[in-house]
Amino acid sequence: MKKTWWKESVVYQVYPRSFNDSNGDGIGDIKGITEKLDYLKELGIDVIWLSPVYKSPNDDNGYDISDYEDIMDDFGTMEDMEELLKEGNKRGIKILMDLVVNHTSDEHKWFIEAKKSKENQYRDYYVWRDPVNGREPNDLTSAFSGSAWEYDEESGQYYLHLFSKKQPDLNWENEEVRSRVYDMMNFWIDKGIGGFRMDVIELIGKIPDEKIMSNGPKLHEYIKEMNKKTFGGKDLLTVGETWGSTIEIAKQYSNPDDSELSMIFQFEHILLDQQPGKEKWDLKPLELLDLKKALSRWQTGLEGTGWNSLFWNNHDLPRIVSRWGNDKEYRVESAKMLATLLHGMKGTPYIYQGEELGMTNVRFESLDDYKDIESLNMYKERKEKGYTHEEIMESIYSKGRDNARTPMQWNESENAGFTSAEPWIKVNPNYKEINAESQLNDENSIFNYYKKLIKIRKANPVVVHGEYKLILEENKEIFAYTRTLENEKLLVVCNFTENKAKFALKEQIEFKTKELLISNYDADVNEPIGTIDLRPYESRMYKLTVHC
Ligand code: NOJ
């Protein structure tokens, strides 16, 4: 078993625009993050994944970058960034930068040049095609609605944009593009960052003419080259965002030979509450058995040959307590249960800002209060297709990305203590009930529960390295599993419903000692574990020592 620091770490994602505003302009900023490092240290995390802070016209909140080596004015300066790295370092917190290199902004100097003429030396940095029969080269669509091709009047060609038309795709076939990207990565590595989260990295090997987007034939060649020319041998954490990975592909990315990445994000579990073959907006209820199957397949599939990331949330996803928990009567219990389930698994856990407080989805009445380009474009498209306003809003309430982007709820003062000005997006009205200040001093809070889970991980190698096994496979209410490392075993039991449920072991587990490491209810530590009457959303994590 190869040990590395990132297997033992917990990562916390900061979405800077919504985290903490230090200068009273309604927008979170880098100084605001530095101010909150002690809060993060208190929680016990080791790494911050920082969503993009680079120069950007903000068509897609920073995922449209116009200068990779400069900082967005809204967020501060390069000095602020260096200060954040320094202050993070002092506290043993590393910073992962978000690497967005499938595309740039159309305001990046490369694209401004490329657009000037077909002969421009930057033209081939992007993907240009002639019209076919006076129309788009093919029917590829953008993730943000409509065609993925945008016509450029002046040159009479189309350019490719798999996201908004202000996010033209880079041409990774071009060796110069690759080497400019590697130079930029080394610029950040030299500043002392802890690694990279790689935005939609699976798309860089695309062949648009054959409509191959994810997992193109040269993808792994490029990643190996990137590894060699930048972070390889430097002991950094690298995590690739991949929506189309199978376990076999994941093994290639995260193979312990270190030739590619530390790990990937895979989204199989995240897709389970959408209708198959349809869009994320087309909802269907989650079946617990599907979730058990999906997560367990990845746990066992990568055992010994790769490494999992563990997450429920990020800036693109709805809040987990609203999605698969119960954000009303059992908000606290279900948030803790979901945390137990995830943090007991094998892999590196990621916490998205506010998840540690049990922050919930939001329901703004007016569409004007929504800011996300994806939701706004979808609204227009579905309205034209005849969906009703109410139907579309229900989809946005369940799946819209702004659910995760409302400001961090720090305290019960106006705007949840996020800003002294009007925030760029409205605060979730439940901030008086749900905020960090009230949770820090409450030993039963969700915050303190996450803190304890992180401590348990640090103190128990079985949490990091133990082998996973699903138990009670067919039980539709309880998600339970064990993790085994030498003579230690972890037993994790989670009631996924708002009803009582009986946990009954099929086969007795032999053990010498038993310790209840954590539970979200008061539980009798001496209660036998063979059968347990679980209360709504009850979860327990036991450590057992077993005979060798
Ligand atoms: C994935 C990012 O997480 C998302 O926020 C962004 O819109 C797209 N990639 C495009 O960069």
Question: Would you give an account of this structure?
Answer:
Pfam families: Alpha-amylase, SusG_C. With 548 residues, the chain is an alpha/beta fold. 26% of the residues lie in helices and 17% in strands. The chain has 15 helices and 20 strands. An eight-stranded parallel beta sheet has the order 11-10-9-5-2-1-13-12. Strand 10 (237-241), helix 7 (247-253) and strand 11 form a beta-alpha-beta unit. The longest helix is centred in the N-terminal third of the chain and has 16 residues, at 175-190. The model has no long low-confidence stretch (mean pLDDT 97). Residues 60, 63, 100, 163, 199-200, 241, 315-316 line the site of 1-deoxynojirimycin. 1-deoxynojirimycin is lined by residues 60, 63, 100, 163, 199-200, 241, 315-316.
The count of strands amounts to 20
Q: What's the Cα radius of gyration?
A: 24 Å
Ligand set:
1-deoxynojirimycin
pLDDT < 50 stretches: none
| Shape label | globular
